[in-house]
DUF11 domain-containing protein (Calidithermus roseus), 896 residues
Amino acid sequence: MKRLLSVFGILLVLGMGFAQGTPAGTSIQNQASATYLDSANQSRSTTSNQVVTVVQQVYAFTITPDGTTSTPGQSRNALPGAQVIFAYTVTNNGNGTDAISLSTTQASSGDNFDLSSVSIVRDANCNGVVDSGEPTVSSVSLAQGAQACVLVLGTIPATRADGDTALINLEGTSSGGPTDTNNWARAVAKTAAALDITKAASPSGTVSPGVSITYTISGQNRGGSAASGVSVSGLSGTGILISDPIPVGLTVSSLPSGSAGAGSVQIVKSTDEGATWSALVAGNLPLTGADADSDSVPDVLVGMYISGSGAFFPQNASYTFSFSATVPAAAAQGTVYRNTATLRYSDGSAQTLTSNTTTNTVGSSYAVVVGPFGYPAGGASGSYASGSYTITRSGDSQSVASVYSGTTVIFKHTLRNDANTADSFNLAYSGAPAGWVCRLAQTDGTPISGAVGPFAAGATFDFELECTVPASYTSGSALNISVSATSVSDSSKSDATTDTVGAVALGYALDLAAHGNAGDGNAANDNPAPQSANPGSTLNIPFDVRNTGQVADSYNFSASVPSGWSIAYYPDANCDGAMDSPLPAPVSGSGLTNPATTKCFIAVLSVPAGAAPGSNPVSITATSTTVASVQDSISTTITVNEVRALLFDPDRAGTVTTPGTIVYTHNLVNNGNASASVSIPAFTSAYGWTYQFSTDGGATWSSSVAGLSVPAGGTPVVVQVRVIVPAGEPVGRSEAATLSATATYPSGNTASDTATDTTTVVSGELRLQKSGVSYVGNAETTVRSATAATAYPGDRIVYTINAKNIGTANLSYVRVSDPLPAYTNFVSVSASVSGVSGSVLYSTDGSTWSATAPSSLSAGGVIYVGVDTNGDSTITAADILPPSAEIVITLKVVVQ
């Protein structure tokens, strides 16, 4: 088939016709994602911005049959003064609707005359004749892949002699520019016997799998005398033979029928490409078109034999022959069935004529099924493990008996394309309760963005629905979530499956107790033993917290202490009940605590200098940061002794980026019996950090404090400490600055106390950015769009993904992934790295790695890229991406 290109010169190098290209207006969406471990060894993920490309229209069409002036595509005989009809098919091979202008021209040389009264008629039923109501046209408007039958009519002048010829051409021009001008046909003036032959197919044009096509061949003796028959091998006497090959793959299951205006009619067949013929009876059926010798000529023919003696078929006598052939139910979209009939008779010498060619193309028959994992159409009962849950499959649904709040349940699914052509699908879910966070993803966790596919007919695609249950959500009733797949090509074709969660139990619980007792199930020993302390002193209360729930959680600490008292919490890393050395940074909570895990802490209680002697109740509470109603408390009694001193409290701790600044607030409390003058000398940092003090709420700052008046009686004076950390400090560096305050009384006696500020440098994150450029054709010579906003079928899109560590700490196990966008074919992928020494590795499954980039990627596939920094030829947590290091990935695809 010839292909006419648009003015843009776009070539479809994908091995498919324009009618199979991506439809105009389709959005091609692409978004990259990455997973990694941060400096705290926590698993993280991030996604890039989305690049959207809109497919533009390509204009292409054909007019058939082709023909030149020396070799016309069709020839018609008629008496001088009679009309001739030439049948053509116009096909839109572009990727959008097109209006094609039609006109005729006649040869200026090489023939004897021009036809008169020339017109073009839209042959609505494609039967090759002009029926009542069929209009004269000068153009046809066709959707993508659609066809139109048109007839060119002309009259042979009455004065023409036998054998004179005329040449006429049907020309077409697309609204987008392409033309088709090689469709010449010949008209012949005939005064002897002149039978003609016309063929029609019903339905015409596009057909569906499993339907029957009825072929009708008809004709008339339009010459000036009666026609005679010819000898046909296998048949008696002489006769007129109308023969028609059964298109390869089609099946004739019922006897053909026919009639003629003269002679005897017999229905016949041939199974050797017309070499010999015999009568066709019901017992011979069914007959299926075949080409056993692979010579592009069907072996099996059916026909009608009109027998008679001498010149038995008079002028104006007509005939008709009809048979039906069924398209296979599994016929692939785009399969073409062309059919041309042949007529043999004698006008004094043997004549062989061919009819016009009918063309039927199998259209798209769209269907999709989606169901439980491995059973897209549903199936027998069974189960599979999904994370910490067991999913039970039954028919076209699957369920989990119960889940815990705060957890993620994953239902796996399989989709199958039951169409007869490649198709893409939109996936969706509905019915998730308010607050649930659900997403559709590929089985490796890569999020699904936009349509998936295209997938070949019969192909399957596995994916999953991931739903995270809100922390505070509980339910005793079953919850049903519907997952559906809908054809992109035909939105009326959809299928759904059901995922059921039987019940949701609270997944959060904790036990707070005195050191060594958390999680033992004995509430009687939860409270710490009573203690005593001097005014202005601190004391330690060891305690433990255990996550007795099902989900990792963090707990904030709070306390109820007498007015003026303060409390701080420190991790007890070795769980020995004693303060670790060196002094760790204080915390405000437990940090992330896994289920069935106990963490140890020490609460440091600061008793103010002016605290009155006596017993004081103290309680500590741990509260879930996820579900505020989940908490536990312990209580004890602190007895204050009668002691006086200067207090410089409390110790502080915090985190800061590099460069960065943090301000700590302290209280100076004079528990003496007279006013005192307090001084705090400058602190010299081991790392060159700057420490400054303010006693006026941050209005002014100095490197030390001198002569600060602090009244007696326990009224605190606020001192702020500002720590300035320069750029370039390593993540994790920590400095504990012990600041000393000395109070001098009028008597000259002194009292001192210290406060410790612990500052730790922390890091940032991985930044993922994506851009795209589309190029004209499958090469990178002419830019179509610098932002990849538009493209045509056959255009190349080049995506660039930049993954950079913008923090100040090492990241590890960095895997950047990018799915192959729907409506595209993979060309290549490459990557480079800067800021770190290592080898770029590639993967198509996220676990098997190679230094060689993949050369192919199937629909729905994903490209993974990582940097092997430890030389073990795989990507693990041992592979490091340091600060400022960057991975640059280039993914190239071609629009289908």
User: Anything to note?
Assistant: Residues 20-58+765-895 form one domain.
